[in-house]
Amino acid sequence: MQTNMRREINEIPEAAARVLERQADAIAAAGKALKAADPRFFVTVARGSSDHAALFLKYAIELTAGRPVASLGPSLASIYSAKLKLDGAAAIAISQSGKSPDIVAMAKSTTDAGAISIALTNTIPSPLSEACSHPLDICAGPELSVAATKSYVNSIVAGLAILAEWTGDAALKNAVQALPEHLGKAITLDWSELISDLAEAKSLYVLGRGPGLAIASEAALKFKETSGLHAEAYSSAEVLHGPVALVGPTFPVIALAARDAAEQSVTGMADGLADKGAYACVTSAGAKSAKKLPFISTGHPTTDALALIVPFYGFVEAWSRARGLDPDKPVNLKKVTETR
Length: 340
Prior knowledge:
Layout: H1 4-10, H2 12-22, H3 24-37, E1 41-45, H4 48-65, E2 69-71, H5 75-78, E3 89-95, H6 101-112, E4 116-121, H7 127-131, E5 134-137, H8 150-167, H9 170-177, H10 179-187, H11 193-197, E6 203-208, H12 211-227, E7 230-235, E8 253-255, H13 263-275, E9 280-282, E10 291-292, H14 301-307, H15 309-322
Parallel strand pairs: 1-2, 1-3, 3-4, 4-5, 6-7, 6-8, 8-9, 9-10
């Protein structure tokens, strides 16, 4: 019997196409507002998978538009009642449900503080959409599995579309429009060899750099959610500053390399760890010692990174079932988390 998670993974290409088609006017309006305001910096508001989507957009904005992006702790508004000075800023708030009280409070605070605020949510109307000046429905459709998949991808797709509209970056705009096709190809990739390769693992690292680090962060969370496996995401550079001491034959490493300026660095780290006797695999054809995982080249470095999450989702869902678990019903978790 197919799980909800597997069905929702299969819906990712269709969901991506849906948001680009149905939200074209909202995407254009948000891009126009950003162009008119020319924000000096961005802030993001999110938790969990949505925060990993925000991290992806942080790198995309910094690399494409040259504006710095900072993540705001929602407790600044909900617990500490801090008054931030956000004149000349833009804010992106991301939430699948659109109703977590602390996310809503922080998003409203950014709007009240003078920022152009954009809500990326799968639920409109919702408290979050009402708290922001530019709400956008990510159109992922009903997501029944507790572990977010298509809503994570669509939050990034919507954010990238707004970024392309704002900056007028034709290459990024074309790459975003081509994403549904590339994500469809990514679904067919087979990472099932990892099921046996990681059978004895008790902990592991997922490595990346730039937008790939955001994908690594999401992958590490999905290991915890669906399989109860301790996994941590690190920059392939940061892992050298202490955490690498834990790596060995029973402490594997999955390195997520995109076709971007960091590919050689990420791949080199995976090769170096494999040479030292660790199990290491990487999404790069240039690997010499690490195991090569299949990937899709989208023709753009930013969308290349996003396409990496799709075969991972397929693998981790199958791995959870192979361990006798139900990826739809993670222990101690529920679909909508309301924090204050």
